[in-house]
Amino acid sequence: MISRLNHVNVFVLDQDRAKTFYTESLGFELRNDAVLDGFRWLTVGPKDQKDMNILLAYPAPPMFSPEDAETVRALVAKGSLGGGVFETADCQKTFEELSARGVTFLQEPAERPYGIEALFRDDSGNWFSLTQPKWLG
């Protein structure tokens, strides 16, 4: 029986640049940075969520064929892929903190039926929701 999800993929265009963005701009902690059989296993995660790891993966063989890897990289660069939803207790405050660190926001915090949400991009082009759910406020 599956008991939980502990890793998710976010495809990035440059792992070194992504490592800096996720640790310095978003404030995540570095979990792993190792090369295994030619594949760089680079994971980060929110400091207060030790059981969730984000694999910052560069789309390339053997994960993808060369053609498919190129397609995925093009979609990332175009901003076509969403990486998920990050939860915060105070969307406005987190928006201000991340903006001050140079994070690019596509949408400032706004009221939604489910809470307050802002949208931002990572350094590769992936977009994320930053959400303060109603049940936290």
Cα Rg? 16 Å
The unreliable regions are none
Number of domains: 1
CATH topology: 2,3-Dihydroxybiphenyl 1,2-Dioxygenase, domain 1
Separation, N- and C-terminal Cα atoms: 34 Å
Mean model confidence by pLDDT: 95
Strand content: 35-45%
CATH superfamily: 2,3-Dihydroxybiphenyl 1,2-Dioxygenase, domain 1
Under the CATH scheme, which class?
Answer: Alpha Beta
Helix content: 10-25%
How many strands in all? 8
Category from helices, strands and their pairing:
alpha/beta
How many H/I helical runs? Answer: 3
Largest sheet: 4 strands, mixed
Overall 3D shape: globular
Description:
The protein is α/β, with parallel strands linked by helices and 137 residues long. The chain has a single domain (7-136), classed as 2,3-Dihydroxybiphenyl 1,2-Dioxygenase, domain 1, CATH 3.10.180. It has three helices and eight strands, in the order βαβββαβαβββ. The protein has a four-stranded mixed sheet. A four-stranded mixed sheet has the order 5-8-7-6. A hairpin with a 5-residue loop joins strand 7 (115-121) and strand 8. The longest helix is centred in the middle third of the chain and has 13 residues, at 66-78.
